[in-house]
Specification:
single chain; mainly alpha; 20 helices; globular
Length: 475
């Protein structure tokens, strides 16, 4: 193995270098200038994101444990864009709240370590690399969920997340051990050739799916979601909602469409039932929420149910629609969480009733939130409409007409509760409306990127065609 082979791990190596540079910065920068760590981290990660778009060779390392192809490379870039937007939206919060507690560098190290684990997880060529990546991506986020040490609810959020994650990890590992017992290998390529529909294999599949279902917040593995989102810092709630969920959806898709493809007649029935209950539970519980973080938590659960419409197809069209929808979902959800974070940072208000009259005092934030909610609801011509349309098309192409009909019913339900927020901002008046305020440049830039993404991605059809071409590398 020569040096050029390690360039296959360019994303991982550069991100590790960024982490090490931040460790050096923490030691060398005086306490009086610690706020410069925020600018340094965003700058370094911005460089990392740009470098990620350069062309890279495709292949495998370590005997097949680590692999990369065009689609994996593209999805890592998608995750990078999402994290960069999240960092921009978190800049003000970090400077005003966290730097004063001398914990700014720790935030970036934990966040980037979690992202590094996701890189390894989606590039895994066997279950050992997958499990190591899964653990590395989960444990730092549990610490981040409890990052606001002055708030009891934040500590409670971290405890709930680590206990739930430990249970899910154990269940998933138990399922992996059963797949190993029946196939005699942990390598994906060998498992796909040896796997059979025995009782032990089916049980292993179910347990493995349950472990990943936790990270995606699928029903009935969703109980932690609303409580953790409410207690965690808003930036970490958005990270769990889009980045962590997106990586878990991607690796589940790869494993189902390749390694576990011989068991498709089994797992498609599982996905069918889980998709229905996830959409209905997420949407019906979102109807009664007043706290915006809990509201977006149940919204994200419902969105996970929609994603399963693409996963159930098991073909190239399903791959394309899932990746395309996740890309749109990242921009849409980060826009919504970004507005919530901007308002919470300036006023401390996080309830839906607090948003009454927001358009009259902060029209720009209201417009960004409206775009985000319209996209999540699937209203044309914003990007979310095209994302859901292609998911429905993929499911219909396999004959799942009843599932598509139930998904359309859930779109109608979701439209109602998204319009509740829009009604509060644009139609309601309040004597105690949130006063006008200006966010700093990082927050403005982060929200601008999400708004542009929501408007452009849906109308830029060549992007869908480009992802469709990349998805050929999976099959």
């Amino acid at each position: 193995m020569d040096f050029s082979s390690f360039l296959l791990m360019r994303h991982e190596i550069i991100l590790l270098a960024v982490i090490l540079l931040l460790v050096v910065a923490e030691v060398s920068i005086s306490n009086a200038k610690k706020s410069s760590v925020v600018h340094l981290a965003i700058f370094l990660f911005g460089i990392h994101t740009i470098v990620g778009f350069f062309k890279i060779d495709y292949g495998s390392l370590f005997g097949g444990m680590f692999q990369t192809n065009e689609l994996i490379h593209f999805f890592k870039n998608v995750l990078n864009i999402g994290v960069l937007i999240l960092l921009l939206q978190s800049g003000d919060w970090l400077e005003e709240k966290i730097i004063q507690q001398q914990r700014g560098t720790e935030f970036f190290i934990l966040l980037f370590s979690s992202l590094l684990g996701m890189y390894f997880m989606i590039s895994a060529g066997d279950f050992l690399m997958f499990y190591l990546g899964l653990e590395l991506s989960t444990l730092p986020v549990a610490a981040l969920a409890a990052f606001e040490v002055t708030k009891r609810i934040s500590s409670e959020s971290g405890i709930k997340l680590i206990l739930s994650a430990a249970l899910a990890s154990g269940v998933s590992l138990f399922g992996i051990s059963m797949l190993y017992a029946t196939t005699g290998s942990i390598y994906f390529a060998e498992i796909s050739e040896a796997i059979t529909a025995s009782n032990l294999t089916i049980l292993g599949l179910v347990l493995f799916f349950a472990g990943l279902g936790f990270k995606i917040s699928l029903v009935p593995f969703h109980f932690w979601t609303a409580d953790v989102y409410e207690g965690a810092p808003i930036s970490i709630a958005s990270y769990l909602s889009v980045i962590s969920k997106g990586a878990a959806v991607f690796i589940l898709m790869i494993l189902l469409f390749t390694v576990l493809k011989p068991l498709m007649h089994i797992w498609e029935n599982i996905l069918y039932g889980v998709a229905i209950i996830t959409m209905f539970i997420g949407n019906l519980f979102a109807l009664r929420q007043q706290n915006m973080k809990r509201f977006l938590a149940f919204s994200s659960i419902a969105q996970a149910g929609f994603i399963l419409l693409g996963l159930i197809t098991g073909n190239q069209l399903g791959t394309t629609t899932v990746v395309y929808f996740v890309l749109i979902y990242i921009f849409s959800n980060l826009a919504a969480f970004g507005v919530v974070q901007a308002i919470s940072l300036k006023t401390g208000k996080e309830n839906m009733s607090d948003y009454e009259g927001l358009y009259r005092t902060n029209p720009n934030l209201s417009l960004v939130m409206m775009l985000a909610l319209f996209s999540l609801a699937g209203i044309p011509p914003v990007a979310g409409f095209f994302g859901k349309f292609f998911l429905f098309t993929a499911a219909a192409s396999k004959g799942y007409y009843l599932l598509v009909f139930l998904a359309v019913v859930n779109v109608t339900i979701s439209l109602y509760y998204y319009l509740l927020v829009i009604r509060a901002m644009f139609l309601r008046k309040s004597d105690h409306a949130i006063p006008y305020f200006k966010s700093k440049i990082y927050m403005k830039l982060g929200l601008l990127i999400t708004a542009v993404g929501i408007l452009v991605i849906g109308l830029y059809s060549p992007l869908y065609d480009y992802i469709h071409e990349l998805s050929k590398s999976v099959f």
